[in-house]
Structure prediction request, 558 residues.
Amino acid sequence: MSEQKPIRDQQDNTSPSGRRQAGATPEPTALERASVIGGWLGLLAIIVGLVWAAVVKHFAAVPLGLVIGGVALGLLWLVINISKVVTAVRGRQAKLIFNSAAFIAVVLGIVVLLNYMGARHHIRKDMTQSQRFSLSEQTRKVAQDLEKEVKLVAFIAPEHRQAAEAADRLREYEMLSPKIKIEQYDPKTNFAKLKEYDVESYDVQFSPAIIVKSGDRQEDVVGASEEQITSAILAVSQGKKTKAYFLQGHSEFPVEGTGPDAVATLKRNLENQQYEVETLSLMAQQQPRVPDDCAVLAIIGPQKPLHDKEVEAIKRYLDQGGKLFVAVGAPPAPGLEGILGSYGITPLDGMVMDPQMSLWGQVNVPMVNAPVSHEITRGLGAVILPVTRAFALQSTPPQYPGAPPPPGPKPVALLESSSAAWLETTLEGQPKKDPGEQGGPLVMAALVDEATPASPTMPGMPPPPSGNGTRLVVVGTAILVSDTLVQQGVDVGVIFALKSIAWLVENEKLISIPPKDTTPNRVTVSDRQRNLAIVTVCLLPVLVMLTGATVWWRRRRG
Prediction:
């Protein structure tokens, strides 16, 4: 028998149980253990430095030092453990980790891209009935037509009760146009900005102050209402104000004062929309003449007839392409036939009575729910016309059958009564329709438009001038635009006047911004609906819980 080789009791790289330990991991050295601790400390330092910089909004010395120190500790760990890192990278598990990391990076990239696109292109939907959280269509027109950059510098105290609302409104403006830039400061901490924009005189602790700038033009706004901000943007972007004159001297409704017959609300809204409002007395002139800078002339409720010289002055103004807004008074006030008759509008003697469409059944307060479609009436809703007179509209007939109508003014009905209305000529006693009185529908507001529309041009050619003709709007009651209805909570008449004047001056951007309806929305439910809600909210969840408990108990017993 051959000699058996002795078996060694123990071999290298074997465990006490006799199994070989292939690729045993050597114990880490003290330097490697210290580098791991340093690496974690470096990561913590980087996180603290970045959070610090984000809070103070700039890299100060301390957060910058933390980030640099953290990067240095990370590099030190990488140098000391480079061999282990290379071995780990070559392993199969590292490839799986890298693939997962790449997938996570792609997903994060998509999320970041969507967030970036969402920040650049806002998509919002105001679901409230009155659109109370959205800016008006008029403001959108102003913002979209801006040719130069407009900067809104707002000083808003955070503790002010309107701070959140004002900040949200400014954000809405910024979203409308890339030409609108917003800067917002706390007046208690930004004294340098207060001094730069010279707003120290404003009590910004109690009311937001907004500086609207475009180039060398600046408008100061105390408050943050949409009408104020949009008006200021118009002022700095257009460079000059539109001149509106109100005729005086014939017991017209005053533009100042607090009486019910004043038109102070109309005047204030015009000034908010960057009109310059002045009164005009033609009787005080030796040679009556409407000023050359008059963009629109308003005659509101004259109680005495105009002198012939005044009539001739106004007619000359209209012949030269003037714009006129007229709100006549009820009989026996003058109807301004000498001016309106030249444009095919004849005021009728009497007042409109409408038993079918009237406010609260008051036949002498007609109401128009569906006005004739026009830029002026768009979005108005119901228009109330108390004690209004009517107009007869006439146009020049053709000279012979089949001939085109001759050029000239063509009045158009704007507000009409129902067919059940009549023209009451007997102003004493109870109103009733007598034989011979004119029936409806009756024209209570009309317009004349002789403005020349822009004709198409060849490519590359400048467009021809447009809108240089006469425009006129007449309504049969001056009470419509007075403070009487405003004091009763009805402002549709003032809005009608503002929209009419905006159309007259041929600037659709200068349209009134109606106030938002802040009436809280309530849901009224019946007893049956309330009981059904109780069953749905309370009983069904209890039944689900009992069913689950029953199933669990049966399975446990089985």
